[in-house]
Specification:
The protein has four helices and ten strands. By secondary structure, it is mainly beta.
Length: 288
């Protein structure tokens, strides 16, 4: 079995639980999202990023994130106040300049649809279409919408490869993009459902920055975290054409045994609506 997400420069050297990290910093229906790897990757640790992170404030009791009824719908219900999302490792393929190439300063990275490569690359990521709605809130301001905050989202393709680093995707830059939150704190991406690879539960990576300008300079990072997918969503998607060994890989791990999510994932598991034919919509409140 290939190992995943310790690879390259071994993103982090110590296995520190994220609850410990937060303590140090701050004193188908279907459900959430994925990020994956290819044949050269090793298992991600729970270690925090080596980049500066502004500590999140405290919040009130956790509540479930609301699902969205259609792929392009904008949530209209009041956003519930949830606990701050935990800090997670960015993995070895962030593309933000902290480990190799920096895509954030490239013209074209600010986009809603991240399925296509841009610039000199021309590849297109295939797979079950998915719309990702993340609502960014401020735990230091009673979970008020964090309008203007920017999110950098990235994840693997259906083969488990990360663009810019891995396998056949090394010369591509698809499945990476930045969006600024609107007045309700909402950022939306159009992408594809990622594949599953051995050693990790399906996930997506993201970073939150105070503003679009700071995101596109890879400066003043607020939080790095990951989104997790529920088993029923993964099983349904991975039964479709184009996902190779994802279903088999999924059966080798679980959310409770995953080395990132095993210490808790309540605030990282989003609601999902839709179907594989017309597309899925994922929604999660991200409190920072």
């Amino acid at each position: 079995m290939d190992e995943h997400d310790l690879g390259l420069t071994h993103d982090l050297s110590t296995l520190v639980g994220r609850r410990q990290v937060l303590g140090l910093l701050a004193g188908f229906g279907l459900v959430s999202v994925v990020g994956c790897t290819g044949s050269t990757k090793a298992t991600e640790s729970k270690s925090p990023s080596s980049r500066p992170v502004t500590p999140a404030g405290s919040s009130s009791a956790a509540a479930a994130a609301a699902s969205t009824p259609a792929a392009n719908a904008t949530p209209t219900a009041a956003v519930s106040c949830v606990d701050a999302i935990p800090h997670e490792t960015p993995g070895p393929f962030p593309g933000d300049g902290s480990n190799g190439p920096n895509i954030l300063t490239s013209s074209g990275i600010v986009r809603r649809d991240i399925r296509n490569s841009f610039g000199s690359a021309s590849g297109v990521a295939k797979g079950v279409p998915v719309t990702i709605n993340l609502t960014i809130t401020d735990t230091g301001k009673n979970c008020a919408a964090r309008a203007g905050a920017a999110v950098y989202l990235w994840h693997c393709d259906t083969d488990g490869a990360y663009s810019m680093y891995d396998g056949a995707a090394v010369n591509e830059n698809y499945l990476r993009g930045v969006q600024a939150a609107d007045s309700s704190g909402l950022v939306t991406f159009k992408s594809v459902f990622p594949g599953a690879y051995p050693g990790r539960w399906p996930h997506m990576h993201f970073e939150v920055y105070p503003s679009l300008g700071q995101a596109t300079q890879a400066a003043t990072l607020l939080i790095t975290s990951q989104l997790a997918l529920p088993a029923d969503a993964c099983k349904t998607v991975y039964a479709t054409k184009g996902y190779g060994g994802s279903l088999s890989n999924l059966g080798q791990t679980s959310l409770d045994s995953d080395n990132v999510f095993s210490d808790g994932y309540d605030n990282q598991l989003a609601t999902v609506t839709g179907d594989v034919k017309s597309g899925l919509t994922m929604a999660l409140v991200v409190a920072v």
